[in-house]
Amino acid sequence: MTITGAGPGIMAAGNEGAGREESFGLNIALPFEAAANEFIAGDRKLIDFNYFFTRKLSFVKEADAAVGLPGGFGTMDEVFEALTLIQTGKASIYPIVLLDAVGGTYWNFWKQFVDEHLARLGMISESDFHLFRVTDSVEEAVEEIVQFYSVFHSYRYVGDRIVLRLNTPLSDAALVSLSERFPDIVKAGKMIQRGALEEEEDEADLQELPRLVFRHRRRDFGRLRQLIDAVNRSETVTP
């Protein structure tokens, strides 16, 4: 299902493409804009917000991936909000794709600003660039999202342990390789592959998934994203 801002243009296209039954609209009440687009207007899944911050919370909390298209201050606000929450561990990591028209320069100039000012001055880490993807290809955007959930399923914390749920178990060799490549994000001990923890009994539908578990430093979430990408490229075994 898709979630859009319920407005015209690319937001309307998102609702039209998914269809009324497969989309939500998060409308913002503004005095100078028209009502929700015709593809979601009147639907019970159209939600009206008075404040941008509650609307952004709903976008970030309920999405499994986000695609940003060229826009104004609101677009910048929403993209930086999602990146800030993920970078600081306040929201779970998910793919953020910044998609331009073919040959467009909007997001490339945005990335240039991030690189030349934020990164150069040490205000963000090099690994933070792994939290988003800039492209002008719809196919690459789709692949970025689909690939993210190919082996990796989801994660949660149990105390200081991070529990990565996987769609398919990793091979022993893959586990060794990941341990060797990502010791910097392990607080203590080592990465292990195992079944569900007792504390995860509240998620019965995920009990059968294999887990990658370790004590996480809870910082440098760009590196955690790199770990997830490496998991998705790792050798797996048939359960």
Task: Please give the structural blueprint.
Blueprint: E1 2-4, H1 10-18, E2 23-28, E3 46-49, H2 52-62, E4 66-68, H3 73-87, E5 96-99, H4 106-119, E6 133-135, H5 138-148, E7 152-158, E8 161-166, H6 172-181, E9 186-194, E10 211-216, H7 221-232
Parallel strand pairs: 1-2, 2-3, 4-5, 5-6
Antiparallel strand pairs: 7-8, 8-10, 9-10
List keywords for this structure.
single chain; 239 residues; alpha/beta; 4-stranded antiparallel β-sheet; 3-stranded parallel β-sheet; 34% helix; globular
What report would you give on this structure?
The protein is α/β, with parallel strands linked by helices and 239 residues long. 34% of the residues lie in helices and 21% in strands. The chain has 7 helices and 10 strands. The protein has helices at 10-18, 52-62, 73-87, 106-119, 138-148, 172-181, 221-232, and strands at 2-4, 23-28, 46-49, 66-68, 96-99, 133-135, 152-158, 161-166, 186-194, 211-216. The strands form 3 sheets. Strands 7-8-10-9 form a 4-stranded antiparallel beta sheet, covered by helices on one side. Helix 4 links the parallel strand 5 (96-99) and strand 6 (133-135). The two termini are 29 Å apart. The mean pLDDT is 96.
Helicity range of the residues?
Answer: 25-40%
Based on secondary structure, the structural category is alpha/beta
How would you state the average pLDDT, rounded?
Answer: 96
The unreliable regions are: none
Largest sheet: 4 strands, antiparallel
Sheet with the most strands: spatial strand order: 7-8-10-9
Order of helices and strands: EHEEHEHEHEHEEHEEH
The end-to-end span amounts to: 29 Å
Annotation, overall tally of beta strands? 10
Report the sheet-strand fraction: 15-25%
Give the C-alpha Rg. Answer: 19 Å
Q: Quickly count the helices.
A: 7
Shape: globular
